[in-house]
Amino acid sequence: MKDINIVIEICGSAGEGTISAGEILSRFMSGQGFEIMSFDSYPAEIRGFGKCVAHTRISSRPIYSPGKLADVLIALNDGHSISQLFALKPGGILIYDSQPLKPHEEDRSVLGQKAPGTTAYGIPLTQLAQKAAGNTRGRNMVALGAVAALFSMDRDGFTGAIQNRYAKKKQIVIDSNVNSFLEGFDWTLENIEKEDGYTFKEVVPEPGREKLIINGNQLTARAALDAGLKFYAGYPITPATKIMEILSRELPKVGGTLLQTEDEISAIAAVVGAGYGGVRSMTATSGPGFALMTEFTGLSVMAEVPAVIVNSQRGGPSTGIPTKTEQSDFEAAVMGGTGDCPRVVLAPTDTASCYDATVLGLYLAEKYQTLVVILLDFFLSNSIKNIDVPAKPPKEMLDANIAPDPGELKDYKRYRLTPEGISPRAIPGTPGGMFFATGLEHDERGRPNYSDKGHLAMTEKRYRKHQSLLREAPKPDILEFKEGRADMGVISWGSSAGAAREAVMAAQEQGIAAASFSSMILSPFPEEELKSFAAKCKKILVPELNYSGQFAGFASGVLQRPVERLNLITGRPMASEDILEKIREME
After folding, report:
1. Which domains does the chain possess?
2. DSSP sequence for 235-293
3. Rounded CA gap, 516 and 348, in Å?
4. Tens digits of per-residue pLDDT, 179-236?
5. Taking a C-beta distance cutoff of 8 angstroms, is the pair 282, 274 a contact?
6. For residues 239 and 247, what is the distance between their CA atoms, to the nearest angstrom?
7. What pLDDT digit, counting tens, does each position of 385-397 carry?
8. Quick one: which of 274, 265, 305, 268 has its CA closest to 439?
9. What is the pTM of this model?
């Protein structure tokens, strides 16, 4: 059986249908049985004519990262595509408009700027779109037709995918898009002599189960609903807004409530209030909003009230770069705040684990009566992957509050010291379950207590329950070297974990003794597992998307040994190619 692994980028200006074309391509290829991972970049402004890029990786084998460079660049806009040529592989394929409305000056033509060795196919995108629909809006569909013809994709199946994408539109819109696609397909077959070696002909992917084509934000919202979320409060912010948009439609259908607040401070205040009342509650934000929530995160920890915050990281600091990805909120999530303030931090490592982390986060927050932070990032929030349909959470994870026995209510101690640190929690309204709850240090009944002995006992209690929690945390994902010990150990977190795993797999295929380690739970951290892994490795590499090496510094402290750092802040997701290059450099 033939294999294929190809990255296709579509580059255009906002309003040219760049992102729509990428989505149609991804969904069609997934429907054909291929693994897909796609990632879009676009301007931060709501309206404008900035650069848009739809990046899609398609493979007949499992994939763990989107790929660094494109094999194919489709130029819908010459000006923007010139600036995207850096991402086209040497010897790659350029598809461009050979008959634009106005001739380009040489230095403004993408064809004139391409690197030597690039295979270029000129397709009259504008002319064919005009012929198909009487306007130029279908240039993106003409380009998809050209791609389908060049790489032997199923013509009728692709047509069906376009019809599905625009099924809710008027028939004239559907017909215009389909006709534009067919014009591009037929013209390319008749006029282009293929020079490259890429083809989907005779590539038959292994049959699999039904796939869900979804991004991290959509999956997070779905998981929250499946996990029994009943209250959401939030304020719109890129890249987390989609979570609130979905829940605004779906949460009322299951008897829940969504509150759009005036700011992030009000949002977390409402979530803590609802959690105090016994309702599963959540909010979602990004770095600037998370910074505003710090005071109430401390209240959640001190008063032992369940609260869940999804923080989808973006380029920072401050309002930073809203539509670029980064992993620079690790320290803020794990250590941000005043005093000794333990909290649970979960970081999904791929699209599928966004579901698992959200379900687990709501469960842990309720059972352990604490704050849970779920660290997504722009890439995980917006990248599309085809995954197996996740199994719904078991019933025991849907009601995790440990309530006091009737006998305990006769002399109720809300913050009773227990071996595991979890105190039975009476929901307000429980007969006999009255107690004090403030942000002040307190005794077992909740009354203010400022003594050194009392403060020590309660601080130890709050940390003790987080160590108890580790027994329920998912185990680290470890890819061992086949002979046990490794020359190189790669430790990663969050969305960089997939690229790290893929890089280590490639290194092993090249005969390099490499292994990888990643953990969904960052706080409390499985330190003993990390130490055990690192003890088998001569060198340690930590790749992450921030400038200062936040997780590398943490890991080095745990291991009490130096680690090599790979810190990138390109605004793009971590690439396995960069990690593999660093592994080779460190050999």
Report:
1. 5-191 (3.40.920.10), 213-397 (3.40.50.970), 406-472 (no CATH), 477-586 (3.40.50.920)
2. ---TTTHHHHHHHHHHGGGGT-EEEE-SSHHHHHHHHHHHHHTT--EEEEE-HHHHHHT
3. 16
4. 999 999 999 999 999 999 999 998 988 776 679 999 999 999 999 999 999 999 999 9
5. no
6. 15
7. 999 999 999 999 9
8. 305
9. 0.95
